[in-house]
Write a structure and sequence with these properties.
Elements lengths: L2 E7 L3 H14 L3 E4 L4 H7 L5 H9 L2 E6 L12 H12 L3 E8 L2 E8 L9 E3 L5 E3 L5 H18 L3 E5 L5 H16 L6 E5 H10 L6 E4 L1 H13 L8 E5 L5 E5 L16 H14 L3 H17 L11 H11 L5
Parallel strand pairs: 1-2, 1-3, 3-12, 5-10, 8-9, 8-10
Antiparallel strand pairs: 4-5, 4-11, 6-7, 11-12
Helix pairs in contact: 1-9, 1-11, 5-6, 7-8, 9-10, 10-11
């Protein structure tokens, strides 16, 4: 039996998650909800309670709404700590961030559990604050192989993004990617790009981009740029995958506490995250494709206020279900 652990999270997370659960129910996918993020901190004192982690490990996939509460910003225990811990515990090192629009169909493959976000950090006696960017050869090899495989499947060129003219870790990154391209993936066209010039390419010529692979910090920034040029974070989905165990699937728009409870949050990114889950986590590519088509149709028929429309979160969910042929 297929089983999904659902973490509604904070802010608009529970609202968009509720729409996703209607799709899971229509597809007869079992699911259970578990506390996570800021609301878990307020209730239990920890962003990733032990029972939530156990449920995620036992699941076929994990679906996350959003995390973040303004009253917890700057506190010793924060919702984002739970997200980083969950990624680490599940071993989901490959973050997939697709960005689609007319004439644009690109995918950024971001290394997710290394680099600055996980390196040594602290303060020195002289008052200096520091963060350390570290990568090992095996870490680069596994993310590069994942990206090459996706590029091969899509029949796409692979662009590896680094900052080799400044960063020592980028030398390792470029060397490993080049070696793999020559020895294991000679059929996949490969190019290298510096992160600053590539950011300009994303803005000025996104239609020329296929599959991109890059390290954690660069991937975090570039994937948001790609989302901005293809409609905004309200439409952006993500999948975080490892080599075994459940993947983590989530929209990237954040918890948006300023609109929480108003019924106007755009659930498109959550629906698209469910589509990624169906494809990459549950082995149901046909259902994933059908859901993607339904979301595209719903964006035309029932746009939410952020897209210039007047539909509520639930009304857009209704439109998606109708497009799927399911009674709303």
């Amino acid at each position: 039996m297929t089983y999904v652990a659902v973490l509604p999270g904070d802010g608009i997370g529970p609202e968009v998650t509720a729409e996703a659960l209607r799709v899971l129910d229509a597809l007869r996918i079992e699911h259970t909800e578990h506390p996570f993020g800021g609301n878990a901190i307020l209730a239990q004192g920890a962003p990733l309670p032990d029972e939530t982690l156990a449920a995620c490990r036992a699941a076929d996939a994990v679906l996350l709404g959003a995390v973040g509460l303004p009253e917890l910003e700057g506190q010793p225990v924060r919702p984002e700590q739970g997200l980083l811990a969950l990624r680490r515990e599940l071993g989901v090192y490959a973050n997939l961030r697709p960005a689609r629009a007319p004439r644009i169909d690109l995918l950024i493959v971001r290394e997710l559990v290394g680099g600055l976000y996980f390196g040594a950090k602290g303060t020195r006696d002289d008052g200096t604050w520091f963060d350390t960017c570290e990568y090992s050869r095996p870490e680069v090899v596994r993310i590069a192989r994942r990206a090459f495989g996706i590029a091969r499947e899509r029949g796409s060129r692979l662009t590896s993004v680094d900052k080799v003219n400044v960063l020592h870790t980028s030398r390792l990154w470029r060397d490993v990617v080049s070696e793999l391209g020559e020895t294991e993936y000679p059929d996949v066209p490969l190019e290298h790009a510096l992160v600053d010039s590539f950011a300009m390419t994303l803005v000025t010529a996104p239609e020329t981009v296929g599959v991109v692979v890059t390290e954690n910090t660069f991937g975090d920034i570039l994937s948001d740029v790609a989302a901005a040029v293809t409609g905004g974070l309200g439409l952006a989905a993500s999948a975080s995958l490892g080599d075994g165990g459940p993947g983590l699937f989530e929209p990237v728009h954040g918890s948006a506490p300023q609109i929480a409870g108003q019924g106007i949050a755009n659930p498109a990114a959550m629906f698209r995250s469910v589509a990624l889950m169906l494809h990459h986590g549950l082995g149901r590519p046909d259902d994933a494709a059908a859901l993607e088509r339904a979301v595209d149709a719903a964006l035309e028929a029932a746009p939410t206020p952020d897209l210039g429309g007047e539909a509520t979160t639930t009304e857009m969910g209704d439109a998606v279900l109708r497009s799927l042929g399911v009674a709303a």
